[in-house]
Design brief:
Blueprint: H1 11-20, E1 26-29, E2 32-35, H2 41-58, E3 63-66, E4 71-74, E5 79-81, E6 85-89, E7 101-102, E8 107-111, H3 117-121, H4 123-128, E9 136-140, E10 147-152, E11 158-163, E12 169-172, E13 177-180, H5 181-184
Parallel strand pairs: 4-7, 8-9
Antiparallel strand pairs: 1-2, 1-5, 3-6, 4-5, 6-8, 9-10, 10-11, 12-13
Length: 200
């Protein structure tokens, strides 16, 4: 997320503008609108791997996997964001009849980038915790094998399980499924240094 917000908006004004936007997506937090930047190749690959792994596990269940196109509205925080991956179980609850702003995800996942990691772990997680139905929050590193899974307990506490072993199995109790860490990193090569394109 960029650090320079645009002028202050009411949520409905933001949403009307965002629905018309065709080039840049924006997140909304308490009247401030932030332009989102694009992700790296690794970010995109891990996001796709995670969505595919979840989709394979959840086939035939009441849960569905949603891409980063689905907006998530957090009413109590007056926020609207685009997670990298989200999962819905059961009937969807939407902000309005347009059905493009979801309010009841069970799982949210973010693939970490150097520019957003602190926010994803701190401020954004604080927003997500205000979603009453959210049970799991996944943070997936893109520069090493590292997956943090926060799970909401019946008493409201969040418990962290950290995975760094590619052969480890991630248990997602709310979805009744298990993922292998290595599935999330399929075809990801670490330590690749970007070089400028050569002139012909």
């Amino acid at each position: 997320m960029q650090t320079q917000p645009l002028p202050e908006y009411r949520f409905e004004d933001y949403l009307a503008i965002e629905r018309e936007s065709t080039d840049v997506r924006h997140e909304y937090i308490e009247g401030q609108v932030f332009a989102m930047s694009g992700g790296s190749y690794e970010h995109s690959l891990i996001t796709a791997n995670l969505a595919r792994a979840l989709g394979n596990q959840l086939g035939g269940s009441p849960c569905v996997v949603l891409s980063s196109d689905m907006r998530i509205r957090i009413e109590t925080a007056d926020a609207c964001v685009y997670p990298d991956v989200s999962v819905l179980c059961g009937e969807p609850c939407f902000h309005d009849a347009r059905r493009d702003v979801l309010t009841n995800p069970v799982l949210i996942a973010e693939v970490l980038s150097p520019s957003t990691e602190a926010y994803d772990r701190g401020g954004k997680f604080a927003l997500y915790r205000q979603l009453p139905g959210l049970r799991h929050y996944l943070l997936v590193a893109q520069d090493q094998v590292a997956v943090d899974v926060f799970t909401r307990q019946p008493d409201g506490r969040w418990v962290l399980d950290a995975y760094t072993d590619p052969d480890a199995e991630i248990l997602l109790e709310a979805l009744d499924c298990r993922l292998l860490v290595r599935e999330l990193y399929d075809r990801v090569v670490f330590g690749v240094v970007e070089t400028p394109a050569t002139q012909a």
